[in-house]
Amino acid sequence: MKTRITELFGIEHPIIQGGMHYVGFAEMAAAVSEAGGLGIITGLTQRTPELLAKEIARCREMTKKPFGVNLTFLPSVNTPDYPGYIKAIIEGGVKAVETAGNNPQKYLPALKEAGVKVIHKCTSVRHSLKAEAIGCDAVSVDGFECGGHPGEDDVPNFILLPRAAEELKIPFVASGGMADGRSLVAALSLGADGMNMGTRFIATKEAPVHQNVKDAIVAASELDTRLVMRPLRNTERVLKNAAVDRLLQKERELGASIKFEDIAAEVAGVYPRIMKEGEMDLGAWSCGMVAGLIKDVPTVKELIDRIMAEAHAIIHERLAKL
Ligand SMILES: Cc1cc2nc3c(=O)[nH]c(=O)nc-3n(C[C@H](O)[C@H](O)[C@H](O)COP(=O)(O)O)c2cc1C
To answer: Pfam family of this protein, just one (predicted)?
Structure first.
Protein backbone atom coordinates (compact mmCIF):
# COMPACT_ATOMS: atom_id res chain seq x y z
CA MET A 1 0.00 0.00 0.00
CA LYS A 2 1.67 3.20 -1.18
CA THR A 3 0.49 6.59 0.09
CA ARG A 4 2.05 10.03 0.40
CA ILE A 5 3.09 9.04 3.94
CA THR A 6 4.92 5.82 2.91
CA GLU A 7 6.68 7.86 0.20
CA LEU A 8 7.57 10.75 2.54
CA PHE A 9 9.16 8.56 5.21
CA GLY A 10 10.40 5.70 3.02
CA ILE A 11 8.38 3.06 4.88
CA GLU A 12 6.49 -0.03 3.75
CA HIS A 13 3.13 0.46 5.54
CA PRO A 14 1.31 3.76 6.29
CA ILE A 15 1.46 3.18 10.06
CA ILE A 16 3.25 5.40 12.58
CA GLN A 17 3.86 4.79 16.28
CA GLY A 18 3.30 8.07 18.11
CA GLY A 19 5.83 9.28 20.68
CA MET A 20 4.94 7.99 24.15
CA HIS A 21 6.57 9.04 27.39
CA TYR A 22 8.40 6.09 29.02
CA VAL A 23 7.18 3.75 26.26
CA GLY A 24 9.00 5.12 23.21
CA PHE A 25 12.41 3.60 23.93
CA ALA A 26 14.64 2.11 21.23
CA GLU A 27 13.01 -1.34 21.64
CA MET A 28 9.55 0.04 20.78
CA ALA A 29 10.67 2.20 17.85
CA ALA A 30 12.89 -0.52 16.36
CA ALA A 31 10.12 -3.14 16.55
CA VAL A 32 7.69 -0.88 14.65
CA SER A 33 10.25 0.13 12.03
CA GLU A 34 11.40 -3.48 11.54
CA ALA A 35 7.75 -4.44 10.93
CA GLY A 36 7.53 -1.84 8.14
CA GLY A 37 5.99 1.11 10.01
CA LEU A 38 7.65 4.25 11.38
CA GLY A 39 8.80 3.77 14.98
CA ILE A 40 9.36 6.84 17.13
CA ILE A 41 11.70 7.33 20.10
CA THR A 42 10.30 9.78 22.67
CA GLY A 43 12.93 12.51 22.95
CA LEU A 44 12.06 13.94 26.36
CA THR A 45 11.96 10.53 28.07
CA GLN A 46 15.74 10.76 27.68
CA ARG A 47 16.66 13.30 30.35
CA THR A 48 19.49 14.93 28.38
CA PRO A 49 20.46 15.32 24.71
CA GLU A 50 23.46 13.04 25.40
CA LEU A 51 21.13 10.26 26.56
CA LEU A 52 18.95 10.78 23.48
CA ALA A 53 22.05 10.43 21.27
CA LYS A 54 22.77 7.08 22.97
CA GLU A 55 19.17 5.92 22.54
CA ILE A 56 19.29 6.80 18.82
CA ALA A 57 22.54 4.82 18.48
CA ARG A 58 20.96 1.87 20.34
CA CYS A 59 17.95 1.94 18.00
CA ARG A 60 20.25 2.05 14.97
CA GLU A 61 21.84 -1.20 16.19
CA MET A 62 18.39 -2.84 16.30
CA THR A 63 17.15 -1.72 12.87
CA LYS A 64 18.53 -0.45 9.60
CA LYS A 65 15.09 0.88 8.62
CA PRO A 66 13.98 4.51 9.10
CA PHE A 67 12.77 5.59 12.55
CA GLY A 68 11.95 8.96 14.06
CA VAL A 69 12.15 10.98 17.27
CA ASN A 70 9.27 12.76 19.03
CA LEU A 71 9.91 16.21 20.47
CA THR A 72 7.07 17.50 22.64
CA PHE A 73 6.89 21.24 23.30
CA LEU A 74 4.61 21.40 26.33
CA PRO A 75 4.38 23.99 29.07
CA SER A 76 6.89 22.87 31.68
CA VAL A 77 8.54 24.44 34.67
CA ASN A 78 12.10 23.75 33.56
CA THR A 79 12.32 24.19 29.79
CA PRO A 80 14.25 21.26 28.30
CA ASP A 81 17.39 21.89 26.22
CA TYR A 82 15.51 21.77 22.90
CA PRO A 83 18.46 22.98 20.76
CA GLY A 84 20.54 20.18 22.31
CA TYR A 85 17.90 17.58 21.46
CA ILE A 86 17.65 18.91 17.87
CA LYS A 87 21.44 18.60 17.56
CA ALA A 88 21.34 15.00 18.84
CA ILE A 89 18.63 14.16 16.28
CA ILE A 90 20.52 15.70 13.36
CA GLU A 91 23.91 14.30 14.36
CA GLY A 92 22.30 10.90 14.94
CA GLY A 93 21.23 10.86 11.28
CA VAL A 94 17.51 10.62 12.13
CA LYS A 95 15.39 11.70 9.15
CA ALA A 96 11.94 11.95 10.75
CA VAL A 97 10.74 14.06 13.67
CA GLU A 98 7.28 14.08 15.22
CA THR A 99 6.73 17.39 16.95
CA ALA A 100 3.81 17.99 19.31
CA GLY A 101 2.47 20.71 21.57
CA ASN A 102 3.62 24.24 20.94
CA ASN A 103 4.58 25.63 17.52
CA PRO A 104 7.88 24.06 16.31
CA GLN A 105 8.64 26.90 13.85
CA LYS A 106 11.87 27.98 15.59
CA TYR A 107 13.48 24.60 14.97
CA LEU A 108 12.27 23.93 11.42
CA PRO A 109 15.14 25.63 9.52
CA ALA A 110 17.80 23.48 11.22
CA LEU A 111 15.78 20.30 10.71
CA LYS A 112 15.00 21.10 7.07
CA GLU A 113 18.61 21.90 6.30
CA ALA A 114 19.57 18.47 7.63
CA GLY A 115 16.92 16.79 5.42
CA VAL A 116 14.71 15.82 8.36
CA LYS A 117 10.99 15.40 7.56
CA VAL A 118 8.73 16.94 10.21
CA ILE A 119 5.26 15.67 11.08
CA HIS A 120 3.49 17.92 13.60
CA LYS A 121 0.74 16.50 15.80
CA CYS A 122 -2.35 18.74 15.89
CA THR A 123 -5.76 18.45 17.51
CA SER A 124 -7.54 21.00 15.31
CA VAL A 125 -7.85 22.10 11.68
CA ARG A 126 -6.54 25.59 12.50
CA HIS A 127 -3.36 24.21 14.07
CA SER A 128 -2.94 21.81 11.13
CA LEU A 129 -3.16 24.74 8.70
CA LYS A 130 -0.62 26.63 10.79
CA ALA A 131 1.73 23.60 10.65
CA GLU A 132 1.36 23.55 6.87
CA ALA A 133 1.97 27.30 6.63
CA ILE A 134 5.22 27.19 8.63
CA GLY A 135 6.60 24.39 6.43
CA CYS A 136 5.91 21.10 8.20
CA ASP A 137 5.98 18.15 5.78
CA ALA A 138 2.94 16.37 7.22
CA VAL A 139 0.44 16.48 10.07
CA SER A 140 -0.76 13.87 12.54
CA VAL A 141 -4.40 14.83 13.16
CA ASP A 142 -5.24 13.74 16.70
CA GLY A 143 -8.97 13.43 17.44
CA PHE A 144 -10.83 13.73 20.72
CA GLU A 145 -10.65 9.93 21.22
CA CYS A 146 -6.88 9.95 21.55
CA GLY A 147 -4.80 8.92 24.51
CA GLY A 148 -2.77 11.83 25.89
CA HIS A 149 -3.56 15.47 25.09
CA PRO A 150 -6.63 15.91 22.84
CA GLY A 151 -6.65 19.73 23.12
CA GLU A 152 -9.68 21.71 24.19
CA ASP A 153 -11.98 21.56 21.13
CA ASP A 154 -13.33 18.00 21.58
CA VAL A 155 -13.85 17.21 17.90
CA PRO A 156 -13.84 13.46 17.24
CA ASN A 157 -12.12 11.97 14.20
CA PHE A 158 -15.27 11.31 12.16
CA ILE A 159 -15.54 15.09 11.78
CA LEU A 160 -11.94 16.21 12.30
CA LEU A 161 -10.36 14.03 9.59
CA PRO A 162 -12.66 14.98 6.69
CA ARG A 163 -12.39 18.62 7.80
CA ALA A 164 -8.59 18.32 7.71
CA ALA A 165 -8.83 16.69 4.26
CA GLU A 166 -10.92 19.62 3.00
CA GLU A 167 -8.33 22.17 4.08
CA LEU A 168 -4.84 20.61 3.97
CA LYS A 169 -2.53 20.24 1.00
CA ILE A 170 0.22 18.35 2.84
CA PRO A 171 -0.34 14.67 3.74
CA PHE A 172 -1.75 13.73 7.13
CA VAL A 173 -2.28 10.63 9.22
CA ALA A 174 -5.29 9.88 11.40
CA SER A 175 -4.41 9.65 15.08
CA GLY A 176 -6.57 8.72 18.06
CA GLY A 177 -8.76 5.65 18.26
CA MET A 178 -6.84 3.70 15.59
CA ALA A 179 -6.42 -0.01 16.29
CA ASP A 180 -6.83 -2.32 13.30
CA GLY A 181 -7.48 -2.76 9.59
CA ARG A 182 -10.92 -1.21 9.95
CA SER A 183 -9.34 1.92 11.42
CA LEU A 184 -6.84 2.15 8.57
CA VAL A 185 -9.44 1.82 5.80
CA ALA A 186 -11.73 4.30 7.56
CA ALA A 187 -8.83 6.76 7.95
CA LEU A 188 -7.98 6.44 4.25
CA SER A 189 -11.59 6.93 3.22
CA LEU A 190 -11.87 10.05 5.36
CA GLY A 191 -8.91 11.52 3.47
CA ALA A 192 -5.87 10.56 5.55
CA ASP A 193 -2.73 8.99 4.07
CA GLY A 194 -2.18 6.58 6.94
CA MET A 195 -2.62 6.24 10.67
CA ASN A 196 -0.78 6.92 13.91
CA MET A 197 -1.30 4.68 16.95
CA GLY A 198 -0.28 5.10 20.57
CA THR A 199 -2.28 2.97 23.01
CA ARG A 200 -2.51 -0.03 20.61
CA PHE A 201 1.30 -0.26 20.41
CA ILE A 202 1.66 -0.40 24.21
CA ALA A 203 -0.21 -3.72 24.27
CA THR A 204 2.45 -5.56 22.24
CA LYS A 205 5.11 -8.07 23.26
CA GLU A 206 7.99 -5.69 22.46
CA ALA A 207 6.63 -2.58 24.25
CA PRO A 208 9.23 -2.03 27.00
CA VAL A 209 6.71 -1.53 29.80
CA HIS A 210 5.58 -3.64 32.78
CA GLN A 211 3.12 -6.45 32.01
CA ASN A 212 0.60 -4.74 34.35
CA VAL A 213 0.32 -1.83 31.89
CA LYS A 214 -0.47 -4.18 28.99
CA ASP A 215 -2.97 -6.13 31.14
CA ALA A 216 -4.70 -2.89 32.20
CA ILE A 217 -5.19 -1.85 28.55
CA VAL A 218 -6.54 -5.28 27.55
CA ALA A 219 -8.91 -5.26 30.57
CA ALA A 220 -10.18 -1.71 29.93
CA SER A 221 -13.29 -0.92 27.92
CA GLU A 222 -14.04 2.19 25.87
CA LEU A 223 -15.78 3.59 28.97
CA ASP A 224 -12.72 3.51 31.20
CA THR A 225 -10.82 6.68 30.25
CA ARG A 226 -11.26 10.08 31.89
CA LEU A 227 -10.28 13.64 30.97
CA VAL A 228 -8.11 15.32 33.59
CA MET A 229 -6.58 18.83 33.90
CA ARG A 230 -9.33 20.46 31.83
CA PRO A 231 -9.57 23.37 34.32
CA LEU A 232 -5.86 24.00 33.66
CA ARG A 233 -6.44 23.94 29.86
CA ASN A 234 -3.98 21.06 29.65
CA THR A 235 -6.55 18.31 29.12
CA GLU A 236 -5.24 14.75 29.14
CA ARG A 237 -7.10 11.51 28.45
CA VAL A 238 -5.97 8.90 30.98
CA LEU A 239 -7.05 5.48 32.22
CA LYS A 240 -9.34 5.66 35.24
CA ASN A 241 -7.70 4.49 38.48
CA ALA A 242 -7.56 5.44 42.18
CA ALA A 243 -5.23 8.40 41.57
CA VAL A 244 -7.45 9.72 38.76
CA ASP A 245 -10.52 9.48 41.04
CA ARG A 246 -8.60 11.55 43.63
CA LEU A 247 -7.53 14.07 41.02
CA LEU A 248 -11.06 14.52 39.68
CA GLN A 249 -12.36 14.92 43.23
CA LYS A 250 -9.88 17.79 43.74
CA GLU A 251 -10.96 19.35 40.43
CA ARG A 252 -14.59 19.28 41.56
CA GLU A 253 -13.78 20.71 45.01
CA LEU A 254 -11.34 23.44 43.94
CA GLY A 255 -13.15 24.49 40.77
CA ALA A 256 -11.64 27.39 38.85
CA SER A 257 -9.15 28.16 41.62
CA ILE A 258 -7.23 24.90 41.05
CA LYS A 259 -3.49 25.16 40.41
CA PHE A 260 -1.00 22.63 39.06
CA GLU A 261 0.52 22.26 42.55
CA ASP A 262 -2.84 20.94 43.82
CA ILE A 263 -2.65 17.90 41.55
CA ALA A 264 1.11 17.51 41.19
CA ALA A 265 1.06 14.37 43.38
CA GLU A 266 -1.14 12.60 40.84
CA VAL A 267 0.60 13.73 37.62
CA ALA A 268 4.19 14.93 38.14
CA GLY A 269 6.97 12.42 37.57
CA VAL A 270 4.69 9.39 37.91
CA TYR A 271 5.49 7.67 34.58
CA PRO A 272 8.69 5.76 35.52
CA ARG A 273 7.04 3.87 38.40
CA ILE A 274 3.88 3.17 36.39
CA MET A 275 5.53 2.07 33.15
CA LYS A 276 8.58 0.33 34.58
CA GLU A 277 7.42 -0.95 37.98
CA GLY A 278 3.78 -1.52 37.05
CA GLU A 279 2.35 0.51 39.98
CA MET A 280 -0.91 1.08 38.16
CA ASP A 281 -2.68 3.26 40.76
CA LEU A 282 0.27 5.58 41.41
CA GLY A 283 -0.86 8.38 39.12
CA ALA A 284 -2.58 9.45 35.92
CA TRP A 285 -1.24 7.92 32.70
CA SER A 286 -2.35 8.53 29.11
CA CYS A 287 -4.60 5.94 27.50
CA GLY A 288 -7.03 6.19 24.59
CA MET A 289 -10.67 5.15 24.33
CA VAL A 290 -9.35 2.64 21.81
CA ALA A 291 -8.54 0.41 24.80
CA GLY A 292 -12.06 -0.92 24.21
CA LEU A 293 -10.86 -2.42 20.91
CA ILE A 294 -7.66 -3.97 22.29
CA LYS A 295 -8.04 -7.57 23.35
CA ASP A 296 -4.63 -9.17 22.95
CA VAL A 297 -0.89 -8.62 23.22
CA PRO A 298 0.62 -9.66 19.87
CA THR A 299 4.14 -8.99 18.62
CA VAL A 300 4.41 -5.70 16.72
CA LYS A 301 4.96 -7.62 13.47
CA GLU A 302 1.87 -9.77 14.07
CA LEU A 303 -0.13 -6.60 14.77
CA ILE A 304 1.04 -4.71 11.68
CA ASP A 305 0.73 -7.74 9.36
CA ARG A 306 -2.78 -8.35 10.70
CA ILE A 307 -3.76 -4.69 10.16
CA MET A 308 -2.53 -4.74 6.57
CA ALA A 309 -4.19 -8.09 5.79
CA GLU A 310 -7.46 -6.91 7.31
CA ALA A 311 -7.31 -3.59 5.43
CA HIS A 312 -6.71 -5.38 2.11
CA ALA A 313 -9.57 -7.79 2.80
CA ILE A 314 -11.96 -4.93 3.56
CA ILE A 315 -10.98 -2.99 0.45
CA HIS A 316 -10.79 -5.89 -2.04
CA GLU A 317 -13.49 -8.18 -0.68
CA ARG A 318 -16.10 -6.47 1.46
CA LEU A 319 -16.14 -3.01 -0.18
CA ALA A 320 -15.47 -4.27 -3.72
CA LYS A 321 -18.50 -6.55 -3.50
CA LEU A 322 -21.01 -3.98 -2.22
C1 LIG B 1 1.18 6.43 27.55
C2 LIG B 1 1.16 7.49 26.47
C3 LIG B 1 2.14 8.48 26.50
C4 LIG B 1 2.15 9.47 25.51
N5 LIG B 1 3.16 10.41 25.52
C6 LIG B 1 3.24 11.32 24.51
C7 LIG B 1 4.32 12.24 24.46
O8 LIG B 1 5.21 12.25 25.31
N9 LIG B 1 4.33 13.12 23.43
C10 LIG B 1 3.37 13.12 22.44
O11 LIG B 1 3.47 13.92 21.52
N12 LIG B 1 2.33 12.28 22.48
C13 LIG B 1 2.25 11.36 23.49
N14 LIG B 1 1.21 10.46 23.49
C15 LIG B 1 0.19 10.50 22.40
C16 LIG B 1 0.49 9.48 21.28
O17 LIG B 1 1.67 9.81 20.60
C18 LIG B 1 -0.64 9.42 20.26
O19 LIG B 1 -0.83 10.69 19.66
C20 LIG B 1 -1.96 8.96 20.87
O21 LIG B 1 -1.72 7.89 21.74
C22 LIG B 1 -2.93 8.54 19.78
O23 LIG B 1 -4.12 8.09 20.35
P24 LIG B 1 -4.44 6.53 20.65
O25 LIG B 1 -3.83 6.27 21.97
O26 LIG B 1 -5.92 6.46 20.62
O27 LIG B 1 -3.79 5.71 19.56
C28 LIG B 1 1.15 9.48 24.50
C29 LIG B 1 0.16 8.48 24.50
C30 LIG B 1 0.15 7.49 25.47
C31 LIG B 1 -0.93 6.45 25.41
So the answer is: NMO
